[in-house]
Amino acid sequence: MGVLRWRSALDRAIASVASQNLVRLDAEVLTALRLGTYQLGWLDRVPARAAINESVELVKRARKRSAAPFVNAILRKLASDPALLQVQGGPLLLATNADAIADTSAHPLWLVERWIAQFGIDTAAAICASDQKVPVPCIRLRSASAEEELRKQGIELEPGAFLVRARRVTAGDVTKTRAYQENRIAIQDEASQLVAALVGNGSRILDCCAAPGGKTWSIADRNPDAAIVAVELHSRRAELLRKRIQGRNVAVVTSDIRDLPNQTLFDRVLVDVPCSGTGTIDRNPEIKWRLQHEDLADLRSRQLAILQSAVKHLAPAGKLVYSTCSLEREENEIVMEEVLLANPSLHPVEIERELTKLKQAGELASALSVKTVLRGPYLRTIPGVQPCDGFFAAMLERE
Questions:
Q1: What is the pLDDT at residue 86?
Q2: Which of 205, 255, 351, 382 sits between 20 and 30 A of 2, alpha carbons compared?
């Protein structure tokens, strides 16, 4: 994970002492060099000789024995001159331009430039700084007794920023506790919990892209008497979802939402679409190296098709929540503009009003200022600004 977070900084250090272009290196050789460089520059419990020897052995085991002397030489040069390793990126929040932020935070320049244009340079720097940290796990308390039990087992908890039942896990492994094994707590990012809470209460609820099921589970807990249909395209993910919510009031359907028969209408619909995931780079750092600018147009097209299909299942006076864990306008505001233009019977619901209802009902933290998680009529959480993933959510209502 550290190598993925700091890949461009590692490559810059390697290139500074390498005699050949990194693009010409075999993937196994470059990976071993990155691992060794990360251990030399970012970890303090691994002796330099051990980092070097292990990387050399990895190359040999990958049947690239001829490259072993090259790897040994590169890593010895880096170990002998710590100045070549820009450890931890430097004073990121003081960076004054896109290039400086991209360099010091190991982010692609094109992403940083987009975030500066959309959020401003200070927020863009905060996003990048947050992406480079290991995220603090968050749980949802499903049982009132679970919190005290966790504390007795040495789990250190802090209140969530948004929801009364959310807790941040500052120390300890909750997956080894009885409360986790008995499903009395659920590991779920707090922004994801907030999106699920926005769905509200209904008698018939549709979750369109349901797996892995964190929001489905949360909605089911909130609506124990509702008939909930969770649609998942991929059979393996659908089966895992069935096991996760076994015994609850949820029917899992393995299908493309675009092929679901139109006869059934729902008074609540959640459309949490597949997206770029740029709001979750702290836990998925490979996204920033895999994602390309041109991917956003394709994602927007698929998201719009899924949303248009989901709209067909929305009953009169029903409410639909559209959400992504993306920071990009193409996947969020622009999708909303297009679906509203194509569906005159839909109109946006003010998220502020819905959040205020949740706060009045005692579900939101009393210290939360609702306006801090809004951007226009939409919900927007930003990594580095709020202690959670970056989520976007909009609510639509059919007349």
A1: 64
A2: 382
Looking at residue 91, its pLDDT comes to 45
Whether residue 327 sits in one domain with residue 220: yes
- Pairing relation of β-strands 378-380 and 392-398? antiparallel
Q: End-to-end CA distance of the chain, in Å? A: 47
Residue 343's domain spans which residues?
A: 190-398
205 and 179 together in one domain:
no
> What is residue 260's predicted lDDT score, i.e. its pLDDT?
86
In whole angstroms, what is the distance from residue 163 CA to residue 140 CA? 9
Q: What is the pLDDT of residue 300?
A: 97
User: Residue written as tokens 């998925």?
Assistant: 284
- Residue of 133, 142, 139 lying closest to 155 (CA atoms): 139
CATH number at residue 164: 3.30.70
Structure tokens at 263: 């006869």
Q: Is 325 a catalytic residue?
A: yes
Q: Which of 365, 356, 362 is nearest to 159 (CA)?
A: 365
CB atoms within 10 A of CB 137: 17
* pLDDT recorded at residue 95: 67
CATH number of the domain that residue 274 is part of: 3.40.50.150
pLDDT < 50 positions in the chain: 88-92
Measured CA to CA, the distance from residue 264 to residue 148 in angstroms comes to 43
- Do 217 and 350 lie in a common domain? yes
Residue 187 DSSP SS3: strand
Same domain, 119 and 210: no
Side chain identity, residue 75: L
Is the domain of 198 the same as that of 340?
yes
- Whole-prediction pTM: 0.93
Distances (CA, A) of 34 to 21, 26, 132, 141, 399: 14, 12, 17, 40, 56
How far apart, in whole angstroms, are the C-alpha atoms of residue 388 and residue 386?
Answer: 6
264 vs 48: CA distance, rounded Å: 64
DSSP characters over 45-88: SS-HHHHHHHHHHHHHHTT-GGGHHHHHHHHHHHHH-GGGS-GG
Catalytic pick from 128, 208, 325, 388? Answer: 325
